[in-house]
Each structure stands twice: as C-alpha cells, then as structure tokens.
Amino acid sequence: MGCPAASATAAATAVGRLPLTCAHKRTIKGCGLSLRAKFNGDTDESLFQAAIDRAALRFQETRRPDPLFIDQYAGCFIRESVQMDLEHYTHRYCLAIKFIDYELLTKLKNIDGLKQVVLFTDGMDTRPYRLSWPTSTLIFDVSPETIFRASAQMLQDVGAKIQKGCLFLHIPLESSDIQQTLCSKGFNGNQTSTWVLQGLPLTNLASLEKILSIISSLAMKGCLFLENCLPVLQKLRLDRRQVSRCGWISFS
Asked: How far is the C-alpha of 147 from the C-alpha of 241, rounded, in Å?
C-alpha cells in the first residue's frame, strides 16, 4: 500500500482548537432559512459560506417531523432564530447523508479490530460526533484547516465529544502531502479502510483527481468508497463518464 503499517496509539494527539474570532457577520438567505454566519477574517468566505449552507440543510432536516437523520450539532453553526420551511422537500444533499451514514456504519460493523475511516469534508462535518461509531474506530477528517478549527471550537462550546474508544484526527487539506500526513498520523494501508467524499471544496478536475489518486494509493482490496460527487461534477460542468475516463474510479 502507499504507506507502511503504523501504530494508531502513537498518533493519539488531541484535535486542535483555536479561539473563534468573529471578524464580521453576514446574512444568508436560501433553502427556506435566514441565517447569520460567523466568519474568521482569515478564512475564504466562499468556502465558509458553503459549509454554513450545508449545516443549515442538516439543521432543517433534523427539525422536520420525520427526519432522515438527526444532527444535534448542526445548530451550533447557525443562529437559533432561523426561519425554516419544514414542508419543503428533503434536499438531495440530506438524502446522500442518509445513504452514506447507513452504508458507512453497516460496513464498520462487519470489521473486527481497528476500523479506519477517512472523511473528505468541508470542515463542518459532524459525523465524528453524531454517529454511533464501533469501538476502535480511527477517524480522519481531511478539510480546510481554518474552517475545521473554527467549527471544532463551536462544537466544543456545545459539549460535543468523540465517542469513547475512538480516535479523531484532522488532516489539513492544505498539507503539501496529504497521503504522507495520513500515514504519519497512524493510517495503515495494510488494513481495510472506508472512505467518504462529501462536502470537500474542489475547484477543478485536477483537484478531484488528486483526491481519487490518494484513495487508490492507500485503499487495499475490499475497501469501501462512498461519494457524493454529483454537486462537484455539476459545479465543474463535468459528467461521471468524464471522470471515469480519467481511470481513477468507475461510477455505476
């Protein structure tokens, strides 16, 4: 595999948390919500905005009479006095979350011993806190560092904690070598792993190819890859056939 076996216990470092500095606020309207997003002055506002928008969708879904899932932490990223349209149809982003959550936990339940999960996210993914992870699950979050640290502080403020018996580590998307950083923090390419791609900010086909290349280099046979690439492909004005022709992955 792309990295040698490594001891997960050696990488048992705490998730970094920095004070959130609210340089300014901005009103967001969309998806039936009127929000006030908190921004760090050093953060690319467009990326922060997109992450806030996705958190708002999870918050709205959680408040529906018959929600697909419960994200008890999505509300910490937005104001409590939001205006929700609970009669509106469930957003496809939330449908993807439901599917990925189910497939992810189903896969992990059938793995004995150490379980490795790599999440490629927008920095505000609450899966590490809200899912019922099996014991001995090692969770990596690859996302923009500033957004992750700001959201980690907000999650800490509301008492969110990682489940006992599990370990959560962050890999900055800005790392010069994400693959090597994963290995240095305890990822073992000789053991099975599960990969989730949802929310990660990708600006072009090359950035998507880079992520898929990392996965293909580190994932051994039998590993599971769960993705919600359609929004990314639409943004890049690509279709799945174009990505399949790159040779990294075949979409069914």
From this structure: 32
